[in-house]
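Entry, Tuesday afternoon. Goal for today is a structural model of the target with NAP bound, before we commit to ordering more compound. Inputs were pasted exactly as handed over by J.K., no edits. I checked the ligand SMILES twice against the vendor sheet because last time a stereocentre got dropped in transcription.
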Amino acid sequence: MQDKNIVLNDKKIGIIGVGTIGGTLVDALIKNDIVARERIIGSTSHEASAREVSEKYGIETTTDNTEIADEADIVVLAVEPQLIEKVLDGVSGSFSPDQLVISVAAGITTEFIESKIDGGIPVVRSMPNTAITVNEGATVLVAGDFASEEDLELAKLIFEPVGLVEVLSEEELMDAITGFSGSGPAYGYLIIESLIEAGVRVGLPRDRATKLAAQSLLGAAKMVLETDEHPAKLKDMVTTPAGVTVDAVMKLEEGGVRVAFFKAIEEATDKSRQLKLDGKDG
Ligand SMILES: NC(=O)c1ccc[n+]([C@@H]2O[C@H](COP(=O)([O-])OP(=O)(O)OC[C@H]3O[C@@H](n4cnc5c(N)ncnc54)[C@H](OP(=O)(O)O)[C@@H]3O)[C@@H](O)[C@H]2O)c1
């Protein structure tokens, strides 16, 4: 195992569970020259998917997680939350404190992971989203009891090139983060899909409606991030008195759009908490 005081490109990264988010991460690491493909090893549960992953990304794959725990400097846990306990039980003896474990599993606490792998192994819990594919991800990191500032920096090196990274000290907020930005792209797609249908209904060709809806949301998101103005103020700027937009806003409010989001995020946060309970975490 190598010393942590070196650049990420000298590290070997192991990803346990190269599925949707694990695969997205592998792709992002390679495409952005964050880590060379030769330094990435991934695992799946089936031989067939291990072969597929190896062919797709050109990385070494295995179905034996202990190979990953033995070889990698940084081990990313990217299996479904319900499988985390079983996976950790299978590799718990293979870790050493000079490694770093990064989990992306929804609802699974650093305390739970630490309790499963003995020996004060540093753990960083992360919650990325699939927009890391296009370098526009939103990732939140939180350090476990044994993770140092340096470990957080290493985790940042992985996620910063693929989007926004926020570090939190309150791990209890991670369930809200999971239901908020972890699931965030799905909410964006739903809004875009609804706008497209609405555009088609008033006569727009579907392809034009798709581009215009996506670009309108991209533009609005950039305005919020780059002008630092409150979204309500930016909305006011689009909303001419007695104009077109205010009529549309009235209809959206009539449809309970805000309350729908309140309820959706609350439901998703509760579900993330439930995953933690299912994972038998105290
Ligand atoms: N999808 C998202 O947007 C998102 C966002 C943030 C965080 N997450 C988190 O990411 C994790 C994975 O979610 P996902 O959507 O990527 O799931 P997924 O697409 O179902 O991928 C799961 C992967 O884990 C592999 N796997 C299952 N059991 C394994 C084992 N015992 N050892 C090694 N690999 C094993 C599967 O391999 P096989 O195909 O061979 O079974 C598959 O490659 C979850 O904990 C989730 O909370 C997901």
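The chain has two domains: 8-169, 184-272.
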